[in-house]
Design a protein that fits this description.
mainly alpha; 190 residues
Length: 190
């Protein structure tokens, strides 16, 4: 089970309408509401503060220039989150280490719900362990567990298969468990 995204911030329709009319103050208010969630998402996906800052700026600029495309059929935060994810993944694709990671698939994948790192792991240790993962693996873990994306959505975003997403999740979870020295019950496959 995933928890609600940090992006799940309600934005009054009047504020969105003002931003659509070009009101800079309205867009600044939107920027301030979403600055931290966009940066955090970008940092988790890209792994570098400077990259995350660039993604934040690019995503917010794109949102500002395309706010007229927002039709209101879904929450504004979901629309903006998608822009941020797209910007971060584009940056990963352009990087030398991006999506060139070996696409190794595992024959039998375990139920990922049972593989989450124990809640007893301190947040700082978890973040340090996440930083050691390859960018693609870290991105899949973050999108799946923190942002609540499905494997189908992740695969579509990355231009990969559902098996790729599941495999990256299983491999990343195993590496996190090893890095955090979390005991795995006997007989559990990861």
């Amino acid at each position: 089970m995933s928890h609600p995204s940090n992006f799940a911030i309600e934005v009054p329709d009047s504020l969105i309408q003002r931003a659509k009319r070009g009101d800079g103050t309205a867009f600044e208010q939107i920027y301030r509401r979403f600055e931290r969630p966009v940066y955090t998402l970008a940092l988790r996906l890209c792994g570098q503060p400077s990259e995350a800052q660039d993604v934040l700026q690019d995503a917010m600029l794109k949102a500002m220039t395309r706010i007229g495309d927002f039709k209101g059929h879904s929450p504004f935060w979901g629309w903006l989150r998608q822009i941020a994810v797209n910007e971060a993944l584009m940056r990963l694709r352009r990087s030398a280490k991006g999506f060139k990671e070996d696409d190794v698939y595992e024959a039998e994948l375990p139920d990922t719900a049972t593989l989450l790192p124990l809640r007893a792991a301190e947040a700082g240790q978890l973040l340090d362990a996440l930083r050691t993962l390859p960018p693609v693996t870290r991105s899949v873990l973050w999108l799946y567990h923190a942002e609540g994306f499905t494997h189908e959505e992740i695969a579509g975003q990355m231009g990969k298969t559902v098996s790729f997403s599941k495999s990256q999740l299983a491999r990343g979870t195993r590496k996190l468990r090893e890095s955090l020295a979390i005991d795995i019950p006997a007989g559990t496959r990861i």
